Amino acid sequence: MRSPWFNKPFAILGPRPPISCLLLCFVCVLGLIAILGSTPSSVFDSVTPIPVPDVYSSYRRLKEQAAVDYLELRTISLGAGRQTELELCGREKENYVPCYNVSANLFAGFKDGEEFDRHCEISRQRERCLVRPPKDYKIPLRWPAGRDAIWSANVKITKDQFLSSGSLTKRLMLVEENQFAFHSEDGLIFDGLKDYSRQVAEMIGLGSDSEFLQAGVQSVLDIGCGFGIFGAHLVSLKLMPICIAAYEATGSQVQLALERGLPAMIGNFISRQLPYPPLSFDMVHCAQCGIVWDEKDGMLLIEVDRVLKPGGYFVLTSPASNLRGSSSNTKKRSTLTPTEEFSENICWNLIAQQDETFIWQKTVDVHCYKSRKHGALPLCNDVHNTPYYQPLVSCISGTTSNRWIPIQNRSSGPHLSSAELVGVQPEDFFEDSQVWRSALRNYWSLLSPIIFSDHPKRPGDEDPIPPYNMVRNVMDMNAQYGGLNAAMLEEKKLVWVMNVVPARAPNTLPLILDRGFAGVMHDWCEPFPTYPRTYDMLHANGLLSHLSSERCAMMDLFLEMDRILRPEGWVIFSDKLGAIEMARALAMQLHWEARVIDLDNGSDQRLLVCQKPFMKK
Questions:
Q1: Measured between alpha carbons, how far is 479 from 484 in angstroms, rounded to an integer?
Q2: Is 470 exposed, middle or buried (0-12, 13-18, 19+ CB in 10 A)?
Q3: How far, rounded to the nearest angstrom, does the alpha carbon of residue 390 sit from its chain's CA centroid?
Q4: Could you tell me if 9 and 3 are in contact, meaning their C-beta atoms sit under 8 angstroms apart?
Q5: DSSP per position, 567-586
Q6: Stretch 472-480: mean pLDDT
Q7: Residue 144: helix, strand or coil by DSSP?
């Protein structure tokens, strides 16, 4: 005999369902909603500084579905299900970058170059819509193929602009003429790039550029990076270059570098400090970067000195130079003499000059500043220096820092010594590293079935190795010590990570940069300085709880995440249940596919894994 529970589906699906069964189902649903609604969710639980991700042991679709069902009921009970999905912005905003509206800046009174600087305060009100991809946008090629060829429709640059650049190859790839191509490391390097890199290495006393790491050079700030040609070469040498260049409405160096899978962000040498702490980089490189360094009473050189580590190098190739390593020793004394004179005032030593490339080395002796002539630049009071777009200063930073360690004496790679863990308990640092090793393995096992089971491979693709070749540009939006980045390096994932430290979180950015990682300070109540569709994956551990007490609207944050995320890109949230509830409701409004993962450990922590769709309207 069939049980009543077995007959119920047939009764419900039949043409004349019994009234008693309908009443019973209705009462059960009301009871479930009442029970689930008893937990307050209008505010988050108490916020911990940086929550450590829970380590879970398996990927369970049943657990996931239970959590999804739970949140569906919560969404209905809270009335969030009635919120409408957001529409696409107009075509004119395909390459929209907030905070860089030159016309609005001029109208507000900014001049003398400051109209090209970042001014988020001018246009805080944004239309709430989704930045659409260009009409012929295509998913970028997987790394490393995407380093050497990009789809021309993906970047706002004309073929004429491409061909007129001396830093790029002078040919297009493929018969369809829909790609820009760059020579790989195995081919001929246009403009003598390998010769130039070897020349720089020899000028600082090395046998070849393969010895940069041995000389303490692992992080390079590449100013005006010329579409990432030099940066791509440094990446092949296992260095970490970060390209910065001014915002450009078309022909952007930063957009093209990121499209190639190279670290880059918008940054200006105009009137404000870069969002990096003092003593951040081992080398600052400027080849035809278009900056007149002796302007503003040397304040631009002081900013270079601020971010340069003791013993670090400033490499300047003047605008009239060529990068072929010719034997010419001509140099323009009228333009370089002021720079040379000012460099002595900030304790730099001109160690080499060849052709029109000049290399200065910053002193390793902190007492040099006290022995200068009377009237020299004063030393800054760095006690409360927060490097977030502060005005340029006319004093020397970093001289009292515990991080004043010559680059030649620093650890190589992400594993710092106890002496280099300034302001951090060594046991906390090493525990964090261990946690992220385990968490990364679980993240990857989690993403593999979602990416490759639910989304068939594209025509012509080979069977992928899950999932690192699907992902190249990663942003950790609340990076803490850079543990996720370190774990990815250890697992040999072919990615790079932009480690972001929120502006009002504990400032761990110096430690991240000392590990040789890419990193930046950022206020998540403002747009990030990058172009649309430039990251494959965004990771946010505890960020939503951290921002719950801030002045910014969460929808604006999610819109910004959608703007910088590529179509078919991924977002991983790790947070408390209340934050995850809110995040899933917002993700639905952005058309994201969203899945909640129960960690199966009895905690209040959940994962929310989202994927941005490829919308082609």
A1: 8
A2: buried
A3: 21
A4: no
A5: EEEEEEEEEEHHHHHHHHHH
A6: 96
A7: coil
Contacts for 118-127: CB closer than 8 Å, 24+ residues apart: 118/247, 118/266, 118/268, 118/272, 118/389, 118/529, 120/526, 120/527, 123/98, 123/99, 126/98, 126/556, 126/559, 127/89
User: Which tokens in the block code for residue 320?
Assistant: 């009239």
Could you give all domains of the chain from N- to C-terminal order, each with its CATH number?
87-132 (no CATH), 145-324+337-370 (3.40.50.150), 426-612 (3.40.50.150)
Q: Which own/partner contact pairs does 34-38 have at CB distance under 8 Å and 24+ positions apart?
A: 36/70, 36/73, 36/74, 36/77, 37/74, 37/77, 37/78
Indicate the residue type of 256. L
Beta-bridge partners for 502: 522
d(CA 315, CA 288): 11
Nearest alpha carbon to residue 580 among 71, 236, 127, 199 = 71
pLDDT in tens, 179-236: 888 765 444 344 578 889 999 999 999 999 999 999 999 999 999 987 788 999 999 9
Q: Evaluate if pTM is beyond 0.70.
A: yes
- The full 3-state SS of 367-393, as one line of letters, equals HHHHHCCCCCCCECCCCCCCCCCCECC
Q: Do 274 and 307 touch, CB atoms closer than 8 A?
A: yes
Cα–Cα separations (whole angstroms), residue 480 to 52, 213, 508, 542:
10, 25, 6, 10
Helices 61-78, 577-589: inter-axial angle, 10-degree rounding: 80
Residue 346, CA distances (Å) to 249, 361, 370, 509 in order: 35, 11, 11, 25
Does a cis peptide bond (omega within 30 degrees of 0) precede residue 18? no
Angle at 261 between CA 259 and CA 262, to 5 degrees: 105
Which H or E run contains 333?
helix 333-345
